[in-house]
Amino acid sequence: MDKLRKELSALKVDTILDVATRDGGFAKEMLLGLGGCRKAVALDITDKMFEKGREKCAGLPVEFVVGDACAMDFPDDSFDIVAVANSLHHIPDLEALFREMRRVVKPDGLLIISEMYNDGQPKASLTHWILHDLDCDMHTLDGIYHHPTYSKSQILWMVKNAGFSVDKTLCDLVDDPKVLAKLRERVAAVPENLKKYAGRPEQAAMAAKAAWLQEEYDANGVTSAEQLVIFARK
Ligand SMILES: C[S@@+](CC[C@H](N)C(=O)[O-])C[C@H]1O[C@@H](n2cnc3c(N)ncnc32)[C@H](O)[C@@H]1O
Question: Which of 16, 18, 22 to mutate to test the pocket of ligand 1 (most atoms within 8 A of CB)?
Fold first, then answer.
């Protein structure tokens, strides 16, 4: 996320909040970009990935906290930056999420969104997007909330509609070799993973999507899907 880091390097902030943090990956990314930030709070509804997160963020001032991003315990106006990455499509009550993020960020503080978008992914990034869309299909059949990704304009509207004013937008992607290796493993695992849904009415559509995935992978390989990154002010 080079472009994100470049933007962050120009900011001077004291405390940041990363909601729906999972293992703190985005909190770490922000701290590395920001430089002298005193504290990051990394909040998730479950602590399942916090142990991994503490390893990942070792040496950085990250505090992991369990909580619901749609009803947070923090007082109003607590943080210089509130961020949410790769998670808008995991949270059903987006109105409550944005209301809470706006409440806890300081007046004139920043909201940062980083979210995979569904319109116009370039070549090898499209492969990741199809893979992700298949994950949404499988999770939905498993009863896990996983909305398909939104378009750039839908994401932008969520931010504006919540009362933020947009300072800047950019598109960026993760180019970590470990992430790319994991994506290749996930593509290879798709045929096996789909077997679980044999006999379900949705199976034919999922098999067709898996064939499209393989076609794109054979033609273009896979790299991370691009994220829309939005910087917006309260
Ligand atoms: C795809 S992961 C987030 C990844 C992480 N932000 C990153 O960029 O590496 C989605 C996360 O949202 C969390 N989540 C879902 N609903 C939530 C809620 N209401 N409040 C806080 N976290 C939530 C899940 O537990 C999961 O860890």
Answer: 22
Instruction: Using alpha carbons only, give the angle 169, 180, 184 rounded to the nearest 5 degrees.
Output: 130
The CATH class, in words, for 2-233 is alpha beta
Q: What is the pLDDT of residues 172-189, one digit of tens each?
A: 888 889 999 999 999 999
pLDDT per position as a tens digit, 91-135: 999 999 999 999 999 998 999 999 999 999 999 999 999 999 999
Q: How much is the pLDDT for 2?
A: 85
**Which one, of 178, 180, 187, lies nearest residue 216 by Cα?**
187
Whose CA is closest to atom 10 on ligand 1? Answer: 87
Ligand 1 lining (C-beta closer than 6 Å): 19-22, 25-26, 44-46, 68-70, 85-87, 90-91
Task: Give the domain ranges of the chain.
Answer: 2-233
Total Cβ atoms within 10 A of residue 175: 11
Q: What's residue 80's pLDDT?
A: 97
pTM of the model: 0.95
CA distance 193 to 135: 10
| Cα–Cα distance for residue pair 50/168, rounded to 1 Å | 31
